[in-house]
Each structure stands twice: as structure tokens, then as C-alpha cells.
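Appendix B. Raw example, untouched.
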Amino acid sequence: MKVERDVIEGKLDIIERNLKFLNEYKTASPRRFVKSYKDVQAVKHSLLEIMEACIDIANHIISAKGYRRAEEYSEMFEILKEERIIRKELANKLEDMARFRNLLVHRYGDIDNERVLDIVKRDLRDVVEFEKEIEDFLDKEAHR
């Protein structure tokens, strides 16, 4: 199976749309943010869409290239690191992101909403870096 650029680019578009939305919250007051159920839910949903899109991209590449199967979502980024598609430091951060995704999905009542806002303010640059490294990978694949 071949890596399908249009599939990955569709996922990158989802990431980009959500990053633009979340930029509105980078200057939000933590106190005001946690009091707004609507804002908290919107941000959590956008983060979840970003995480799902990153996981889908990793899964597509792993499957298309015939790399070893991941036992859990966080391991997918380890595999991309092993195959030199993303850097080690980025893989570690994305593994943490995948674990946070599991919290959002399975233990949503245990989430600290100030931590959610902190992720928006500090950790989204990792997603931007992931986008760049995936685009570099796609460019290399196109020349093979």
C-alpha cells in the first residue's frame, strides 16, 4: 500500500482548522476559562480532533509502509521515531499527547480544566512541528 498524500493532507487540514480556533484561547484568563462550560467543552473537543488527526496520520503511514503494529496510540509515535519520520523529542511529546487523549476520552471527569488551557498555551507548537515533519516526509515520499 502506498502513502496517500491526499488522506494525510485532509487530516492536516483538520489540525490546522483546530489550531486556528484554539489560538483564540492563548490569551484567555484561566479563571474565566474554567468558569465557561461552553469554552471548556469547545477547547477539549478541538484538542481531541487534533489528537485524533495526528493518530490517524501516524496510523496511515505505519500501515502504508508496513511498519510494525502499535499496541496503543502512544506507541505509534515511537514507531514514527524509529523509522526516522519524526524526531525523538517530538515523539516523546506526542506520546504524552496520546495519553492525554485517552484521559479526555475515558476519564473526562478527572481532567483539570486549567491544565487543558495550559496545553493550548504551551504545547500546541508540538503539533505545528508534527505538521512540518509530516509535510517533509510527504515531500521525500513524492521523490521516491
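End of appendix B.
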